[in-house]
Design a protein that fits this description.
Layout lengths: L5 H22 L6 H15 L15 E3 H4 L2 H12 L4 H28 L5 H18 L5 H7 L4 H21 L4 H13 L4 H22 L7 H25 L2 E3 L1
Antiparallel strand pairs: 1-2
Helix pairs in contact: 1-5, 1-6, 2-4, 4-5, 5-6, 5-8, 6-7, 7-8, 8-9, 8-10, 9-10, 9-11, 10-11
């Protein structure tokens, strides 16, 4: 990674510094109205050894469980990690988990650049990542993916907007480039989206479905039995979405405890 021209080394160092500033920015970013809910819920689940039983903001027992929370595994995963490693939920969410999401998102950006530029054009890959870092700095002023990355890095919405959506684009590019791993790539993204948050549970199958349908129609691959790959890719996230909609339709938005 550090071999090659001095320019590449300086680009890499600049990226490390840029990502570090993003992480520091996320630590001192404002705490919005969702912050007490996330941190309070995870903290309450850890120290009461319960899941979706006590409202983390007030400490009162829930009279009903929202259906969306039954499929919102992100905070449950955070509580499990906090308890397993004896880490305070505030540190786990705001520092450890948030930092990991920021680092992972930048790795995804580099992977995206790798689909465009060859190994000989590594400098352009680094420049692409630096541009995305600058865009996130300058664009974190309204409700968009940059705000979630730098201000709500610990939330499942951030994973959906800044990691899973770019990964879908990368998978599409791999398929377009006739890379055999492209379909497997999209299948793994579909599996990941099913267990992170309601946002990814809805966005991932819709985004995949729109692209796969347009791809099959434009390439006329229905006659070449390409459709089964599209079905397999959509199956993990699509199945969870259908189950969630079915539960919502049968039981309503809240289930009494």
């Amino acid at each position: 990674l550090f071999s090659g021209s001095k320019n590449i080394n300086w680009f890499f160092v600049s990226i490390v510094i840029g990502v570090g500033v993003e992480i520091l920015f996320s630590f001192f970013h404002w705490a919005d109205y969702d912050f007490p809910t996330y941190v309070g819920t995870v903290t309450t689940d850890v120290y009461t050894d319960t899941i979706n039983t006590i409202y983390g903001v007030t400490g009162s027992y829930l009279e009903a469980i929202e259906v969306k929370r039954l499929f919102q595994s992100g905070m449950v995963n955070s509580a499990v990690v906090s308890q397993a490693f004896a880490i305070h939920p505030l540190f786990e969410l705001r520092c450890a988990e948030g930092s990991f999401h920021i680092i992972l998102s930048n790795i995804v950006y580099y992977r995206f650049a790798s689909c465009i530029f060859s190994e000989r054009e590594k400098e352009k890959r680094y420049i692409t990542v630096l541009i995305t870092i600058l865009v996130n700095y300058m664009w974190a002023a309204s409700w968009n993916s940059s705000v979630y990355l730098l201000g709500r890095s610990y939330q499942g919405k951030t994973v959906a907007a800044t990691i899973l959506m770019p990964l879908i684009i990368i998978g599409i590019m791999m398929v377009k480039q006739k890379n055999r791993r492209g379909w497997l790539y999209l299948f793994l993204v579909s599996m990941s989206g099913a267990g992170i948050s309601p946002s990814s549970m809805i966005l991932v199958p819709i985004a995949l479905g729109i692209w796969l349908l347009s791809y099959l129609i434009s390439k006329r691959r229905f006659l070449k039995k390409m459709w089964w790959k599209a079905i397999l890719v959509l199956m993990p996230s699509g199945l969870i979405l259908c189950i969630w909609l079915l539960v919502y339709a049968l039981l309503g938005a809240k289930i009494p405890i």
